[in-house]
Fold these 2 entries.
Entry 1:
Amino acid sequence: QKEVEQNSGPLSVPEGAIASLNCTYSDRGSQSFFWYRQYSGKSPELIMFIYSNGDKEDGRFTAQLNKASQYVSLLIRDSQPSDSATYLCAVSAGGTSYGKLTFGQGTILTVHP
Amino acid sequence: DGGITQSPKYLFRKEGQNVTLSCEQNLNHDAMYWYRQDPGQGLRLIYYSQIVNDFQKGDIAEGYSVSREKKESFPLTVTSAQKNPTAFYLCASSNRDRPYGYTFGSGTRLTVV
């Protein structure tokens, strides 16, 4: 079983719709959760992080964390063509492994006009 | 401006040759990381260092070596023992405080010729 697994893509949504990206993780000791956006040929950029159960909103982005079910999701409201990219879920165990992130395989999102 | 600088952007390696990828940061971050990304895949950890003069193997360290003689610098050498080195290499850094999120360099694309 992969340590961090994302919903298989690619995901295609129309402009203005809500894009939903999901991620599950296997280590119950995981403490910090991140979503990165990566455009083709570029390095990943951090768009959201979350530590506590529940929702965290930042503009059009909402991260949701459920530690009991070991999943984290990212919702993108009012999707724009510029949101088309690969989205990477990353998980940190914390403790002595602080900072070391394990990444999922990524979900390709395409927002079509 | 603070950031991470990776060089070169593109690198070509001949069979049996060792090459070194440079990574320099001026963010005063304690920890630095090297990841490898293959097409359509997520990031896999090669090596990481949480303090000067100390580093740890990641999930795919075979065929790679690193050094951490200065806080700012974490070069990666791809040795001839790495049989399939063609990939996108990403260097990242993080500090000890939450959110532990990474700052990434712009990456080096290595191709075997």
Note: Chain A has no helices and eleven strands.
Entry 2:
Amino acid sequence: EVQLVESGGGLVQPGGSLRLSCAASGFTVSSNYMSWVRQAPGKGLEWVSVIYSGGSTYYADSVKGRFTISRDNSKNTLYLQMNSLRAEDTAVYYCASPSYWGQGTLVTVSS
Amino acid sequence: QAVVTQEPSLTVSPGGTVTLTCGSSTGAVTSGHYPYWFQQKPGQAPRTLIYDTSNKHSWTPARFSGSLLGGKAALTLSGAQPEDEAEYYCLLSYSGANWVFGGGTKLTVL
């Protein structure tokens, strides 16, 4: 059974940093392309970033230069390093394969 | 930045058929956009129904199908069930470097 489990969300002040993790089981993170997707409260889905099996990474304009996607093949885990956080980054963050989705982790940016 | 458009809301009768569409501001949607369709119910994570235009997962009910129709990606639901009431999102890839979600379609089964 495939499981993706996100962690690392929480409350952070504007300008702060967080690192999200997505631990995979029954599924090899490095063999597939993996994305981070977010959903602000009451809003639709927004693609954030993707990392391909070859290692190429891409970002939405809204997070470019502030967020970094990476993976640890030995831990079969996907990460999202988020710096210079803004109020508009408040959302539930999902990792997705995208055939499989995690349950999401809430990030709240507020003073 | 491309804009992906979906109908904001649609209503279908139980047992009826409805088609949701997904258009692109850059022109016709093709198989090269690798269209995805997702279903999301309140309080739940999204679930992938269709990938690469028309491919289904093992968990995708047979009543859902994906296609290209009139320059758009399309999701057709044939024989709607009450449990199909949900928000539906499409996702398009732009040369693999940029993925864009549509705004979502709220489907009501009534």
Note: The mean pLDDT of chain B is 97.
